[in-house]
Amino acid sequence: MIDALTLGQLRTFVAIAEAGGFRAGAARLRRAQSAVSHAVASLEQELGIALFDRDGRRPVLTPAGTALLEDARAVLLKVDTMRARAQGVSQGLELELSVIVDTLFPLPLACAALQAVHARYPSVRVQLQVAPLGGPLDALLEGRCSVAITVGNDLHDPRVKKEPLTTVPIVPVVSSSHRLGASLRARKRLSADDIGEHLQIVLIDPTPLSARRDFNVLSPRTWRVGTQEAKQALIEAGVGWGRLPLWTVETALRDARLLRLVASNLGPAGEAREQAYVAHRRDRVLGPAGRAFREEVLCRV
């Protein structure tokens, strides 16, 4: 009977599917492999279908298993969300608030929100980190932060709730000493092909969330860097061109150390706007300090 299904069976099924095998799934759950195998066999018996094809060296989801995997994940997410809400009813003030901010987001805005949180809850320690691309989302999923600020609409996960903040202007720039800079000073009209002939400086995603994917890369020749600071330093040194958030380059643009690149597929007037979000796990209730940070950052944009 379906009523005889247990959450433990569903968690075991999902763990094996995500880990890619019974042994790896057992290690993730910290259970004996025999117990994991028994749980899946019992689940298959209750459902009346085979979830895994065990003929090969590694178990492979059957078509039925693939279809039911998302259902199992949805059930577990609902249960975990209910448990988190129940725990939050009596939850006290957290000892530490961990926040990760997308490297594109204006850091002064996040710091102002944290200053307000500190004024309300001075005993709460704060851990603030900045990470590019999939870093904030990955930290939320792995439980390494309570609240994150993400930028862009390319990466999503149903376990994460995202609330829109402001849009962040992103501008393609190049050093005034670069060959492209010389063309701009000569008022030469540049096409996307002209710009794409030159080396582009691109951020590396420190997570597997965007593996083998490039965002806004025009040039076939690229240098990859791990931080926004390194990217900007290389661009200002004249090594190549790249996209940077406007708030980080306003002074360099004003001083003419950097120049804006304008082409039709680089956004209107050479500017693109990326949506920013404040995000947290749906299945984990924020403590008072986490809620305060969320409220402060929402009201400041």
From TrEMBL:
Swiss-Prot/TrEMBL keywords: DNA-binding, Transcription, Transcription regulation
InterPro entries, per the entry: LysR_HTH_N, LysR_subst-bd, WH-like_DNA-bd_sf, WH_DNA-bd_sf
A UniProt-annotated Pfam family: HTH_1
Gene3D superfamilies: 3.40.190.290, Winged helix-like DNA-binding domain superfamily/Winged helix DNA-binding domain
SUPFAM superfamilies on file: Periplasmic binding protein-like II, Winged helix' DNA-binding domain
GO MF, any single term: DNA-binding transcription factor activity
Top-level taxon: Bacteria
Sequence similarity: Belongs to the LysR transcriptional regulatory family.
Record-given protein name: DNA-binding transcriptional LysR family regulator
